[in-house]
Design brief:
This protein has 70 residues and is mainly alpha-helical. It has helices spanning 7-23, 28-69. It starts with 6 loop residues before the first helix and ends with a helix.
Length: 70
């Protein structure tokens, strides 16, 4: 993952890896490499979701503070 992938790009690539591995006709070494890449993509997606959750939580908190100040 040289450049930062968007969530959608990473999910699409992860789905492709899962589909390929589910077919079961991948040599062991390649399957291990694909599995490792899938783990990296999964972590990347998780990080994006966590950052989005933080942003939404902060926005909701700020909105509540603004309403209290009114």
């Amino acid at each position: 993952m040289n450049k930062e992938k968007t969530f959608d790009e990473a999910m699409k690539e992860l789905e492709s890896i899962v589909d390929k591995l589910e077919q079961g006709d991948v040599p062991l070494e390649e399957a291990l490499d694909q599995f490792q890449e899938g783990i990296k993509l999964s972590r990347h997606c998780k990080n994006i979701i966590e950052e989005a959750e933080k942003t939404v939580t902060q926005m909701v908190s700020e909105s509540a503070e603004e309403k209290e100040a009114e």
